[in-house]
Amino acid sequence: MKSYDVLVIGGGPAGLAAAVSAHKNGAKTLLVEREARLGGILKQCIHDGFGLVRFGEKLSGPEYAERFVDMFREEKIEALLLTFVTRIEKTEDGFKVVLVNRDGVEPVFTKSLILATGCRERTAKQVAIHGTRPAGVFTAGSAQHFTNLLGQLPTKRCVILGSGDIGLIMARRLTLEGAEVVGVYEAKPTPSGLTRNIHQCLHDYNIPLYLSHTVTRVFGQDRLEQVEISKVDENMQPIAGTEEIIDCDALILSVGLIPENELAETLGVKLDPKTKGPICDGQLMTSVDGIFSCGNALHVNDLVDYVSESGEEAGKNAAVYARKERKLLPVEASPALLYAVPQVLDLNKENKETVVYFRSRNPLTACTFKILVDGEEVFKKNYPFLRPPEMERLQIDFDSFHLTEHSKISLDIEVKDHA
Q1: Burial tier of 56 (Cβ tally within 10 Å: 0-12, 13-18, 19+)
Q2: Is-above-0.70 flag for pTM?
Q3: Within the chain, which residues score under 50 in pLDDT?
Q4: Which residues are registered as beta bridge partners of 71?
Q5: 89, 215, 300, 406: which sits with the fewest CB atoms below 10 Å from its CB?
Q6: Are 64 and 13 a contacting pair, CB within 8 Å?
Q7: Residue 173 backbone phi and psi in degrees, to 5
């Protein structure tokens, strides 16, 4: 049975960065990817805007992915494509991973695992849209795949539900290809996508955005013919009597992403109900020793640059991973935060600084992010505004706070005004 120091599951931007980082830190590394090519979702993201943080350039998704694929190949790291993980067993010394591909079934051993499995899109049934099951109901990612990779225009006149970034980008892309986008409908009272995408994808192309609206029903037998739009109340429940019927041949869904963590759950990894990803320490190790998580499997990121960053951190820490007792300290996020990562800190960590990611629960202006230890403020940063769709990143030296195993760490936002 082949043996490795680090096995990375997933060949997208997080997995590629993790594998390169683990290899450069001296680990014998294997990357497993279920698709035929490396790069993950970036292969179909032909719009630009990637790499501004990492490379200081405006790259397309394939260009960004190719940078890391080139690094991966230069290091001559072993990869298995068109390969699926069917079972993982915890052993005394590490993990037995059963792989399946065209060559058959092969078990391998690894001392540590990195889960870089990305995320998936929510479907129509997960947002309770009623009606028939006609062709023409797509997730935004599926519509992007048809348009950008297959060269097939999936619609001539469509409605987009949800103002997530992929939906906004597809509103522009479909318009440029000659389709009519009737409008983007969002159940929340505020947009879900980045502000720059609202302007560049909707305003610049005169595509209307309807807030506090949702799709409640679809009509059509073989192909979608109409959708029913309703206004929603403050609890996002449809308001009777506000229904409107719109003719269209496609409904594009951009209603949220869910981290892929079925493998993590089979191994007993504890998940955070807020992020839907594993509970991790500052080194991105999960609640199970030797298992690390990164990228969108950990939490959904705004920018691929931060996906790669977390992959590199997980790869480095998996490579230097040694069995020792961890001293874990919970990090409590107040109700003012939608979530914060990491959720715990390891007092025995080797690297000094920890990257903290967080989102506010509500749109805010003139507010202050604070870190408190035993009720005493030890760090603060003022923000002119915070918006839930826009993730914030801070690099914190927790060692300077002189933490002990009895310390109580809490994160909070002092609100001066709501946006």
Answers
A1: exposed
A2: yes
A3: 323
A4: none
A5: 406
A6: yes
A7: -60, -45
